[in-house]
Description:
Mean pLDDT: 96
Number of helices: 5
Largest sheet: 9 strands, antiparallel
CATH superfamily of the largest domain: Electron Transport, Fmn-binding Protein, Chain A
Radius of gyration: 21 Å
Shape: globular
Number of strands: 9
Distance between the termini: 34 Å
Number of domains: 2
Low-confidence stretches: none
Amino acid sequence: MKEYPQSKINRIKRGANRGTYDVEKINTILDAGFLCYVGYIYDGKPITIPMAYSRREDKIYIHGSTANRMLLSILESEETSITVMHLDGLVLARSGLHHSVNYRSATLFGSLKKVEKDHDKTKILKWIVDQMMPNQWDTLRPMYQKELDRTLVVEFTIVTASAKVRDIGVLDEPEDYDLPIWAGIIPIKQVAKYPIADKGKPENMQIPKHVLDYYDENK
Length: 219
């Protein structure tokens, strides 16, 4: 079992029993989604924003406009942290203090570099699109050069990371279990609804098989 090294920056203190540094488990959390939260400092102020991403081995790839202040800021600092989180359930307890959520989260720390070559940028953009919707990229028109020129792609190398997972029931005070108060878990799941065609030609076209497959798997 390969683990990320523990240090002051990634060691879990609160709820350490829910923590893991296992590389495979962390990758599973990362591969279950395509949205991450990236932290950066701009004009002396801390800011966090969501970004689409794709993972390949120990690399996370994100992209935006060449004028994107977040990407430019983290490239200048040469490091950042990234968080991915999935909400799995609401934990309703007998006490307000013990309400919680079931979740899977991973926080990554690492270094950055700008992806320069058009070939590499195109390959990475394909990964990002296909992490959102499998097999989508090959159905699209090729990118224009002007689109590539306006796109900044950043490679984030995971130096260290940690994850926390809560997947248990209510944890109330022992004396509260006899109270006539309902407690339990409401499972939460993100679902896909039936695809809606864009106006124009798609209204008269069959929905692609890979889109319907995604709907069937996630409805």
